[in-house]
Amino acid sequence: DGSIESIGPIEHGLQTGKWQWYYADGTLKSEGYYEKGEKALNWKYYSEKGDLVKIEIWEKGVLLSTKKID
């Protein structure tokens, strides 16, 4: 249908930098960072209504913490 599922750079075949994923209607679903193909830094997850529902902290592909937003 032409809708965008995700946007982000690829370097040497690996996801790197800031990536964003979208619901079918174009609303932001999640966003976060990759370093050499592994999740890194802050990741944010959103409801279909656009409300922030969860934040994760990653380092070199290892989940350090998760915070659910009420």
Classify the secondary structure makeup into a structural class.
Answer: mainly beta
Query: Poorly predicted ranges (pLDDT <50, ≥5 residues)?
Result: none
> What is the helix content?
under 10%
Q: Shape, please?
A: flat
Q: What's the Cα radius of gyration? A: 13 Å
Q: What string gives the helices and strands in order? A: EEEEEEEE
With helices defined by DSSP (H or I, 4 residues minimum), what is the helix count?
A: 0
State the strand order across the main sheet.
1-4-5-6-7-8
Question: Major β-sheet, in short?
Answer: 6 strands, antiparallel
Percentage beta strand = over 45%
Distance between the termini: 33 Å
List the keywords.
6-stranded antiparallel β-sheet, flat, mainly beta
Description:
With 70 residues, the chain is an all-beta fold. It is built from no helices and 8 strands. It has strands at 6-7, 10-11, 14-15, 17-22, 28-35, 38-46, 52-59, 62-68. The strands form 2 sheets. It has a 6-stranded antiparallel β-sheet, with no helix packed on it. A two-stranded antiparallel sheet has the order 2-3. A hairpin with a 5-residue loop joins strand 4 (17-22) and strand 5. The protein is flat and about 30 Å long.
